[in-house]
Design brief:
heterodimer, A: about 240 residues, mainly alpha, about 80% helix, elongated, B: about 450 residues, six-stranded parallel beta sheet, 19 helices, about 15% strand, globular
């Protein structure tokens, strides 16, 4: 069954990634620069989806913040069965059902599918074996750039932490982002440097996107709103 | 222990510090839970987890995973309650009726009887559903009113949740919130409040999911409209009908006097009741000068049996345990109470002076927390239901003496006409509206 789905959904994506990546490699003449460009192309292709997810996410967060206040109030004063029923009534008042978070996240699932399949693809690219890039001697192995310490995962995490700082002032979400950045440092520390290079590029692009998203609305509110709307509604 | 409790109530700064600390802990706990969920996700679905690239996606992923877990929790719990209800429901059935009136306990009889009589007089048949047997001592129901006993508690509500009727009128609040759910086969749900009250002392969502509320006065009406506004709910139908049980109390409001003035002590129960706050010692200062009649709240017997027993054993007082407070109110020259609804009955029906301990009800979780401020009713009735500070309990005798001397029956009549709809004819007014609902539910 798994194999059937893999052939149906994943295999075509693998072919697509391979074509795009090898084309970028042939353009730049470097497997490393090919990865950097691959990350840029992919992020730009997914930008409308990301913006739509962000727009919906922020709207949902605003409603949830109000709802959470009420839920918190109920939890403060009531216990057990009574609390359960009041929390449900609060959900009803805000037109929220927990399953809606799962069902109305199409944009997120598309991102999950793309990024997870790219991860899968880059974990098994035979061309990366022995390919060098700047100071990295083999993109199929951890970089060990600084006395055996892998630098790329650290850079990736630094970009991620910076991204979390730029992303917003919500302390809870920021703490959550720091914790996840730390978690991914552990998970990706010993991964092939090609994969981490791609991932670090993703994080740097994300940092830039968040920085632009923070500064631009304040500087050019009308233009920004128009651009975001046209990108988010682009099909 | 009681003094400590009181001190705690008074120290609001301390309270807010405790609140802040608990909110902080709550936030930390939530952050830990979110992270734990995400780690679980990484462990279960590593590829999916690698979709994480930045705080935006991470946050969305945590949101989805949390949603999934919470849905599962609510789904399972809801399933448990539904199965329970289905099992209970399958054992009992009530036939179809047009107009059903539901009484949860015998002390609501006084609310329904004037309405049932008025319905009967108008020739409107109705089914009276009681969660208790109407044995001897209960008034015979008027012509055209059929009576069905339904079980108490969950079983009874399971049955009500599947009732077939055009209109169901009840005093029970919180329709569609706890176990009392809307039946698909009932077209209209109406709530009939059983006291002159405000929404602020009601538990959450008390009136929100009713189609109509039969309002006792303008304050409740304003409260309900405000709650609708705060919660973004559609406006329900509000009828100005007054309080049916006042019709009934009015009949028995004859004065019976003794040799000395009688002070009736009739408090509520719970942390703000006079007895729970101050014990019984304060009664001593009244004993030499007045006849003291004490009517402990029936709920006190369950919530604090030791205190209840100590009241019964207190020497020099008379304890009244009648089903209704009418006899005690008729004998009283003055009422001393706290947040109990009996204060309005004493003032408006029996036209007696009333003094109350000025307890600011910490509206913890109640509707008043959203409405803000203090009781509108208390504020409006300040001239006739006179508050005194809890710290002044040792001077209760002086307050009683002053209130008796400054009694203002004229002011009572003025306020009554402002605050109570259809005084003395609420039963017929309620029956009239119920009949109109039957025609246009």
């Amino acid at each position: 069954m798994t194999s059937f789905f893999e052939h149906l959904f994943v295999a075509p994506l693998m072919v697509l990634y391979e074509s795009v990546y090898l084309y970028l490699v042939s353009m730049t003449g470097s497997f490393g620069w090919g990865l950097v460009l691959f990350s840029i192309v992919l992020n730009f292709a997914l930008l409308p989806v990301y913006l739509q997810m962000e727009r919906l996410g922020r709207a949902a967060v605003a409603v949830r913040a109000k709802m959470d206040e009420e839920v918190k109030r109920m939890k403060r004063h009531f216990r057990g069965r009574e609390r359960y029923f009041y929390v449900r009534a609060v959900h009803r008042q805000f037109g929220y059902h927990p399953i809606s978070a799962v069902l109305n996240s199409g944009e997120l699932y598309l991102q999950v599918l793309i990024f997870a399949s790219v991860f899968h693809y880059l974990s098994n690219v035979p061309e990366l074996v022995g390919a060098s890039f700047i100071g990295i001697s083999d993109l199929s192995k951890p970089d060990a750039l600084l006395f055996g310490i892998n630098v790329l995962p650290i850079l990736m995490t630094a970009a991620n932490v910076a991204s979390a700082i730029v992303y917003g002032s919500d302390k809870k979400r920021r703490r959550q982002a720091y914790a996840l950045a730390g978690l991914f440092l552990i998970l990706l520390y010993n991964s092939p440097s090609g994969l981490v290079l791609y991932w670090a590029c993703n994080n740097v692009i994300s940092l830039m996107r968040n920085a632009v998203g923070r500064i631009a609305p304040a500087m050019f509110p009308r233009t920004w709103a128009k651009t975001v709307h046209s990108l988010a509604t682009q099909e | 222990m009681m003094k400590n409790e009181l001190r705690r109530c008074r120290s609001s700064d301390n309270f807010s510090a405790v609140l802040q600390r608990s909110e902080k802990l709550d936030r930390r706990q939530k952050a830990r839970q979110s992270l734990a969920l995400f780690c679980l996700c990484v462990w279960l679905f590593p590829n999916v987890a690698f979709a994480y690239i930045d705080p935006g996606t991470g946050s969305a992923l945590v949101y989805v995973v949390t949603g999934l877990v919470v849905s599962l929790y609510f789904g399972l719990r809801s399933f448990y309650y539904r199965v329970g209800e289905w099992v209970l429901r399958s054992r009992h059935r009530v036939g179809r009726c047009d107009l059903a009136l539901h009484s949860e306990a015998p002390h609501y009889e006084i609310t329904f009887l004037p309405v049932l009589r008025a319905l009967s007089a108008r020739g409107v048949p109705a089914t009276y559903l009681t969660m208790y047997e109407r044995g001897e001592g209960f008034e015979e129901l008027p012509a055209g009113i059929s009576h069905t006993v339904i079980p108490q508690g969950m079983v009874g509500y399971a049955l009500l949740n599947n009732l077939t009727a055009v209109v169901l009128a009840t005093t029970t609040p919180q329709l569609d919130v706890m176990t009392f759910r809307r039946s698909k086969r009932v077209k209209h749900y109406a709530n009939i409040p059983h006291a002159l009250g405000e929404a602020r002392y009601s538990r959450p969502y008390a009136y929100d999911f009713y189609d109509s509320v039969f309002c006792c006065g303008p304050i409740l009406k304003q409260n309900i409209r405000r709650m609708e506004e705060l919660r973004g709910l559609p406006a329900k139908r509000l009828f100005d009908v007054g309080i049916p049980h006042y019709d009934e109390l009015l009949k028995g409001a004859t004065r019976r006097t003794g040799s000395r003035p009688t002070v009736l002590i009739a408090p509520s129960w719970g942390p703000l009741s006079i007895f729970e706050c101050f014990g019984t010692e304060f009664l001593k200062q009244l004993l030499g000068h007045y006849d003291v009649l004490v009517r402990p709240h029936p709920q006190l017997q369950r919530s604090n049996p030791t205190l209840y027993e100590s009241i019964l054993a207190f020497e020099g007082i008379e304890v009244n345990k009648d089903r209704t407070p009418m006899g005690a109110l008729a004998r009283a020259d003055i009422l001393v109470s706290d947040i109990s609804g009996i204060v309005h009955e004493a003032a408006f029906i029996f036209e007696r002076p009333v003094i109350i301990v000025d307890q600011k009800l910490a509206a913890g979780g109640l509707e008043g927390e959203l409405l803000g401020g203090d009781s509108d009713l208390k504020e409006r009735c300040r001239d006739i239901i006179i508050p005194f500070a809890p710290a002044d309990i040792d001077h209760l005798g002086i307050h009683v003496e002053r209130a008796l001397a400054q009694h203002q029956p004229k002011r009572i009549a003025e306020l009554r006409s402002e605050l109570v709809y259809e005084f003395g004819s609420a039963g017929p007014a309620t029956a009239r509206q119920l009949e109109s609902l039957l025609e246009c539910p």
